[in-house]
Amino acid sequence: MSEPLPQALLMAVKLPGVESQEFDASLAELARLVTTLGYVVVGTITQQRTALVSASVIGGGKLQQLAERTGGSGSTAPTLPKVKDKARLRREAEEEADEPDFEPYIGPDSSLGEGPIELIVADHELTPTQLRNLERATGTSVLDRTGVIIEIFHRHARTQKARLEVEIARLNYSAPRLRESPRGKERQQGRGAGEAAIELDRRRIRDRIAELREQLEAIQKEEGVRRSHRRDARRVALVGYTNAGKSSWMRMLTSSQVLVEDKLFATLDTTVRALAPETKPRILVSDTVGFIRKLPHDLVASFKSTLDEAAEASLVIYVADASDPDCEQQLEVTRSVLAEIGAHTVPSHLLLNKVDQLTEEQRRDWQRKYPEAWLASSRDPADLARVRQLIVDFFESFYLEAELVVPYDRQALVSDMHENGRVIEQEYAPEGVRVRFRADRETLERLRSALSA
C-alpha cells in the first residue's frame, strides 16, 4: 500500500482591485503547482484586506485559525520578546481593526481533520521576515509561490544546462532568506556572531552563483554556435502556458519521443527537431519552457538563453488550451513574457488546442473571437495534417516564382533548387536545364548570382 501524500494548506489575501475571477484562478493554479510538488491540497484560508500585514501577511485572527490547524502557537514573537515601540503597537492595532471575520474556505475533496499539515503555501511573494514569522506561528514549513515554482523547476531539470539555470535562480531566491541564528546561540558565541555567520553564508552563495554562471556561459557559447548554424533555417517555436499541450504538438509534428506529462513544467529544456515528414528545405520545430502567472524574474533571466529559441524563430506558434476557462488570461501571460525577452515582434499564429473537449457552441465562440486562429486537437490525425500544412504554407507564402536556365556543366545548382525551394517544372533544352521553381528571395538571389559568376 502506497504512503499517503503529505498535506498542504493554501493561504491568500484578496486585495482591492483584484477581481474575484482572477483571485480564484490564481489560487486554483497554485493548488496545481503544489500538487505537482507532491502534496495534496486539503484546504485554503483566504482573507480580504486593504493591504498585506507587514509581519505575517494575514491578520492575527486568521493567523490563529491557521495555527489551530497546524498545531502552532499562533504567535510570531521570537524566543526573547522584543520591546515594541508605540508606533508599532498602534500600527498592529490598526491592522487588526481592518481584519474582517471571514470563515476559511476548505476544498471539497479535503478533510483537515486527517493527518498533519506539512506545508503552508502563500499565493504572495513573502519577505524573509514574513516567512520566518509564519513558520514560527504555525510550527510548520512555509513556501511562497516563487519558492514552489523554483522547487518544481529543480525537480524537473534534466540536462546540465537546465540544472545550472535552476540552481542560479534557487540560490538568488535563498540568499536573502537565510535564517538568523537563535538568540541563545548568539549569546554563547558573542553578540554579532550570528550576523557574521549569515554574511559568510551569503558570500559563499555569491561565489557559487559566479561559478555556476561561468559554467552556464560555456554551455551557452556552444549552443550559440549551434544556433548560428541554424540561423538561415526555417524555424518554428512552440510557446504557451505550462501544460497547454506544446510537448504533445511537438511530438506529433516531429514524430519524436518528446516527454509528454500532465504536469506543470514537465518541459524545461528546449528540444529542436525537424518537421515530419521532412520538407525541402527542412523546417525545424522547437519546444520551449512553459509560462505561468508571476513567473519569477530570476527564472526568466536564467532561462533567457532557452527562450532565445522563440526570439530567433521565423514563426512563433502560441499554443493555448481552449478548454481552460482561464485561457485568455493565460494568453496574456504568454504575450507579456515574450515581450520581456524581445520575442513579441516575431511573426506569430495562435493555435487553440484541445478543441475536442469543447462543445460546438464553444468552438463557434472561439472562432468569433479569434477568426484567424487554428482550432485543433493534437489527438486528431486530420488536425495534425492540417496544422503541418499550415506551417508549410506560412513559409511558402514568402516564395517568389522564377525560371532559370542551368547549363549542363552546373547541374549541382539543380540539386540546390530541389533542396532549397519547390521545383514546379523541369525541362531539358539545348542550352541547359530550364527550371521553373519557387523559393524565398534570398535563395533566388543566391542562385542568380551563382549562374552569372
Question: Can you offer a commentary on this structure?
Answer:
The structure is a single chain. The chain is 45% helix and 18% strand. With 453 residues, the protein is an alpha/beta fold. The protein has 4 domains: 7-146, Rossmann fold, CATH 3.40.50.11060; 157-225; 232-396, P-loop containing nucleotide triphosphate hydrolases (Rossmann fold), CATH 3.40.50; 400-452, 2-Layer Sandwich (Alpha-Beta Plaits), CATH 3.30.70. A 6-stranded mixed sheet has the order 6-7-5-8-9-10, with helices on both faces. A 4-stranded parallel sheet has the order 2-1-3-4, sandwiched between helices. A 3-stranded antiparallel sheet has the order 11-13-12. A hairpin with an 8-residue loop joins strand 6 and strand 7 (283-287). Helix 1 packs parallel to helix 5 (145-156). The longest helix has 37 residues, at 193-229. It is elongated, with a radius of gyration of 28 Å. The termini are far apart. Mean pLDDT is 82; it is low at 79-83, 95-113 and 180-191.
CATH class (first level) name of the largest domain: Alpha Beta
Q: How far apart are the termini?
A: 77 Å
Strand content: 15-25%
The main sheet comes to: 6 strands, mixed
| Helix content range | 40-55%
**Please, what is the CATH homologous superfamily of the largest domain?**
P-loop containing nucleotide triphosphate hydrolases
Mean pLDDT, nearest integer? 82
Q: Helix/strand/pairing class, anyone?
A: alpha/beta
**Strand and helix order:** EHEHHEHEHHHHEHEEHHEHEHEHEHEEH
Specify Rg, calculated over alpha carbons. Answer: 28 Å
The CATH topology of the largest domain corresponds to Rossmann fold
